[in-house]
Design a protein that fits this description.
This protein is 77% helix and 0% strand. With 279 residues, it is mainly alpha-helical. It has one domain: MetI-like (MetI-like fold). Helix 3 (59-90) packs across helix 4 (92-105). The protein is globular. The mean pLDDT is 80.
Length: 279
């Protein structure tokens, strides 16, 4: 590690080390683990993620369940929002037809959908949807409730849609017109000009949407029918005054969210580095 990298790492670690030191000091002064547990207790939980916690499985297994739920709802949102955003951005008729209507739902927080979602789906799951009633697959699919998927879907849908529309609308029209004049087909304009030019904005929207979807997770896992997941683990730990598990779960959510965000930033830096040159 060279001097520059060492300096950058030191700058990054200043705030976390300060907060951990403050946490350690306040916890020692309070001496009440229900209000604020010791740093050592939380680190112990995080360093042993496969240990069983309060008879609800390990921290790692609950994170995996939560991650699967987020991925299902997020992928569904991306599969619908990206094509819709491209069509709305490219065709003014589609934009005029859908924009105002969709705009009515954009300001509604995902949590506001909870009563309606419970009335629609109840405790139905992917197992109910697929008709699987027995076996190992039933156990897996029954953990993915349709109500949770919908809440996560709503959280991810609008950021992806908005960025997709903006990305397509911000493409230089001269490039599109020039390609059409030179005899390019509509499919070629879409595949070779429109989508590559709009891709950075779409990826950025997917990054934002994934962050929102991950934040909606805890709310989704507080819905009836949930028996696992890091959000449910946090809620249940709170009811029995295990604040150390609550904080460990919160830190886990933050770490996984940061890792997912880093993945998108890595893709942006690798595939769209030309953006920085164009600025």
């Amino acid at each position: 590690m060279n001097l520059k990298s060492l300096y950058k790492f030191a700058i990054i670690m200043v705030v976390p080390l300060f907060l951990f030191s403050l946490w350690w000091y306040v916890a020692v002064q309070i001496k009440n683990p229900v209000i604020l547990p010791n740093v050592e207790d939380v680190i112990e939980l995080l360093s042993n993620p496969t240990n069983n916690l309060i008879s609800m499985g390990s921290l790692a297994s609950n994170i995996i369940v939560s991650l699967v739920r987020v991925i299902v709802g997020y992928c569904l949102a991306a599969l619908i929002a990206i094509p819709m955003g491209i069509l709305m951005g490219y065709y003014s008729l589609v934009h005029n037809l859908l924009n105002n209507f969709i705009g009515l739902f954009r300001p509604i927080p995902p949590l506001a959908w909870v009563p309606l979602v419970l009335a629609w789906f109840g405790v139905s799951s992917l197992a109910t949807l697929t008709g699987i009633e027995h076996g190992q697959w039933y156990i897996y699919l029954n953990n993915i409730k349709l109500s949770m998927i919908f809440i996560i879907f709503i959280g991810a849908f609008f950021p992806i849609l908005t960025s997709s529309i903006y990305g397509v609308q911000s493409v230089n029209k001269t490039l599109l017109d020039s390609a059409l004049v030179l005899g390019a087909k509509s499919s070629e304009v879409f595949g070779k000009i429109l989508l590559p030019a709009a891709a950075p904005s779409i990826i950025n929207g997917m990054r934002t949407g994934l962050g929102v979807a991950w934040m909606c997770l805890v709310a989704a896992e507080m819905l009836p029918g949930s028996l696992s997941g890091v959000g449910y683990l946090i809620t249940h730990a709170y009811t029995i005054a295990r604040t150390d598990i609550v904080i460990a779960g919160m830190i886990s959510i933050g770490l996984v969210g940061a890792l997912l965000d880093y993945l998108f930033r890595f893709i942006e830096n690798k595939k769209f580095s030309w953006q920085h040159l164009a600025r």
